[in-house]
Amino acid sequence: MKIAVLGAGPAGLLFSLLIKRRNPTWEIRVYEQNPADATFGFGVVFSQGALAFLERDAPDLHAQLSARMERWPMQRIVHRDEQVDIDGNGFSAISRLALSQFLQRLCHESGVRVDFSHTVSSLAELGPADLIVGADGANSLVRRTFESQFRPRVEWLQNRFAWYGTSQVFECLTLTFRENADGAFVAHHYRYAPDMSTFIVECDADTWRRAGLDTKDEAASRSYCEQVFAPDLGGHELISNKSVWRQFPLVSNHNWSAGNVILIGDALRTMHFSIGSGTRSAFEDAIALDRAFGEAGPHVPAALAAFEQQRRPVVEKLHAAANQSSYWYERFPDKLKLAPWPLAYDYMTRSGRISDERLTTMAPAFMARRPT
Ligand SMILES: Cc1cc2nc3c(=O)[nH]c(=O)nc-3n(C[C@H](O)[C@H](O)[C@H](O)COP(=O)(O)OP(=O)(O)OC[C@H]3O[C@@H](n4cnc5c(N)ncnc54)[C@H](O)[C@@H]3O)c2cc1C
Fold first, then answer.
1. Nearest CA among 303, 297, 280 for reference residue 133
2. Is the CB of 70 under 6 A from ligand 1?
């Protein structure tokens, strides 16, 4: 059995590793446009319990990853310089590069061949394969190649964001809201290593234009953001890694496979970064696809059907929650008229799925601070 995997992100690497471990005689070849030591962004965060599936399905990986992670038991909202802590809303985080290199090493040790610095511009380059896995991210070539079969939907959010890092170390996952004469900004920030943090800056399109960020270059944009968040950065700089302003695409597909071609991870559907589930979902896809082959053996149509049947209900539920969360951010400037606690409450209940009872159980200290 010959499998070609496009993309060495979390989805492509984990699937390749698991399927090779399960079937050492199968030939697995991964194509990746970037060099081995490159990645976009800085750290990634996982919501509490998000890695429980990994603990269950790949305990050795879970133990090794856990040892490399930062973790904290609560989330913080900063608005009008006031901190509101939400207990019980814990997260963990890891460097994206460390995660990638960890998976790369395991793939290498298992005999997966990964061709780095190899941009695939046509699937014809992959040669004959029994299975093609499109793990090539939100702008997937595999998806675009079989567009009429996958029938994708891509909705571009209007907010703009830039993904920075900083050596300022934050206590926990924090959302900091700041306003100036140009408009409203929010930073999603958290430490992902003892000495490094992710710092994503987001604003609405009107604020972005008023601030001139549509014409400023990378260095000028970074300097502007440093000024907006000066009270939070404590004199530390923002660090750029191709940190250009982007819009987030909400991707979904009507069909998940086309013949012997399957999409996984962001190529299949994106999860807005505000719920910390994109990488986790990419991992879950990889685990489910490997398991489907475990049951079906080399019978590709049966495995792809089983994969979709198992994953679709879970993915659609989480995807709806992620989209709901992203729409909250699209309206966040209007929310800033709320005082800090009501803003935090509005944020926590944004999916419409958390009742006061559940929130009281989950975050008793936060709910006890509810203004009367
Ligand atoms: C600002 C931001 C913050 C985020 N924060 C978080 C977070 O905190 N927690 C979280 O869980 N998720 C987060 N995510 C989402 C997370 O990054 C993705 O969900 C995750 O990386 C998806 O993994 P993937 O393997 O499907 O795709 P990707 O990580 O995008 O990997 C796809 C790979 O395919 C390669 N590729 C693409 N096209 C080609 C080609 N033609 N030829 C060769 N190679 C190709 C790319 O170079 C890339 O390495 C965030 C996303 C963004 C934008």
1. 303
2. no
CA of 202 to the centre of ligand 1 (A): 18
215 and 258, same structural domain? Answer: no
CA distances from 222 to 67, 76, 266, 318 (A): 32, 24, 27, 33
CA of 9 relative to ligand 1 center, distance in Å: 6
For the stretch 177-200, pLDDT in tens is 999 999 999 999 999 999 999 999
Q: Which of 61, 68, 70, 113 has its CA nearest to residue 91?
A: 70
> Is the pTM for the entire model greater than 0.70?
yes
* Mutational pocket test of ligand 1: of 33, 104, 121, 188, the residue with most ligand atoms within 8 Å of the beta carbon: 33
CA nearest neighbour of 84 among 339, 353, 355: 339
Ligand 1, atom 37: closest residue by C-alpha:
136
Are 288 and 143 found together in one domain?
Answer: yes
- State in Å: Cα 355 to ligand 1 middle: 32
Q: Express each pLDDT in 273-293 by its tens digit.
A: 888 789 999 999 999 999 999
Give the DSSP letter of residue 248: -
Within-domain flag for 6: yes
Q: What pLDDT score was predicted for residue 50?
A: 73
Cα(237) to centroid of ligand 1, in Å? 25
Query: What per-residue confidence (pLDDT) applies to 352?
Result: 81
Q: Pull the structure tokens for residue 365.
A: 């200290």
Tell whether the model's pLDDT for residue 48 goes beyond 80.
no
Q: Is the CB of 133 under 6 A from ligand 1?
A: no
Question: Ligand 1 centre from 78 Cα, in Å?
Answer: 28
Alpha-carbon Rg for the chain in angstroms: 21
Examine the domain organization and report whether 50 and 175 are in the same domain.
no
What letter does residue 236 receive in the DSSP assignment?
P
| In a shared domain, residues 359 and 241 | yes
The CATH number of residue 206's host domain is 3.30.9.20
- Expressed as residue numbers, the domain containing 305 is 2-72+93-157+249-328
Q: Is there a single domain that holds both residue 175 and residue 307? A: no
